[in-house]
Design goal:
The chain has a single domain, classed as 3-Layer(aba) Sandwich (Rossmann fold), CATH 3.40.50.2020. The chain has 8 helices and 8 strands. Helix 7 links the parallel strand 7 and strand 8. Helix 2 packs across helix 8 and helix 4 crosses helix 5. The two termini are 26 Å apart. 39% of the residues are buried. The mean pLDDT is 94. Catalyzes the transfer of a ribosyl phosphate group from 5-phosphoribose 1-diphosphate to orotate, leading to the formation of orotidine monophosphate (OMP). Homodimer.
């Protein structure tokens, strides 16, 4: 069990993954009746921000994602707001690992003044390989919007990497657009671990 910042820093990938899974089950996963941003109804909801904005959660996320990025990755990016802390975590951890990767944030709407840009972050060389990050994927539309904005800006985007896949169409959407899709957890991972941690709860 990881119970200190020092233990997170020195932990192996499997240990970090288990610790992150527990954080999601404790702070991000809720049961009830919910309407998702896609309009779909659900008996559970995952709000990743209590985990991605937690210092130890961010550290685990940064380390785990950095290990999964393609070797040619030149930057990471994501659609605001859910991906903001993930992009920052990966960028900071990459600097500590001596392979610094800049981060880009994609606005949902263009800035209302100045350059009216969709992208925030360093200007990269045309064709730079950028990986799109996401917290929770449902239909996949949010990350796809980020991909399209980055491609329009002249970057090469072939990968989407998410923390949790709800397995409700996102993977299929990315495949249609020839995007490689990786995820740290599936919703089955969350359901199973949550049930272990809450044996008295009805499933």
């Amino acid at each position: 069990m990881l119970d200190s910042a020092a233990s997170f820093i020195t932990a192996s990938a499997p240990e970090l993954r288990q610790a992150l899974l527990d954080l999601f089950c404790r702070f991000a996963y809720k049961t009830g009746d919910f309407t998702l941003s896609s309009g779909q109804k659900s008996t559970y909801y995952i709000n990743g921000k209590p985990v991605t904005l937690d210092p130890l959660g961010a550290l685990a996320i940064g380390k785990l994602i950095l290990q999964q990025l393609p070797s040619n990755t030149q930057a990471v990016a994501g659609l605001t707001l859910g991906a903001d802390p993930i992009v920052s975590a990966v960028s900071v951890v990459s600097a500590y690992e001596d392979c610094p990767l800049p981060g880009l944030i994609i606005r949902k709407e263009p800035k209302g003044h100045g350059t009216q840009a969709y992208l925030e972050g360093p200007q990269l060389a045309a064709g730079s390989a950028v990986v799109v990050l996401e917290d929770v994927v449902t239909t996949g539309a949010s990350a796809l919007k980020a991909v399209e904005r980055l491609q329009k800006a002249g970057y090469t985007v072939n990968h989407v990497l998410a923390l949790v896949d709800r397995q409700q169409g996102g993977s299929e959407l990315y495949a249609e657009h020839q995007l490689n899709f990786q995820t740290i957890f599936t919703i089955q991972d969350i359901h199973a671990r949550w049930a272990e941690l809450n044996p008295e709860a009805k499933t």
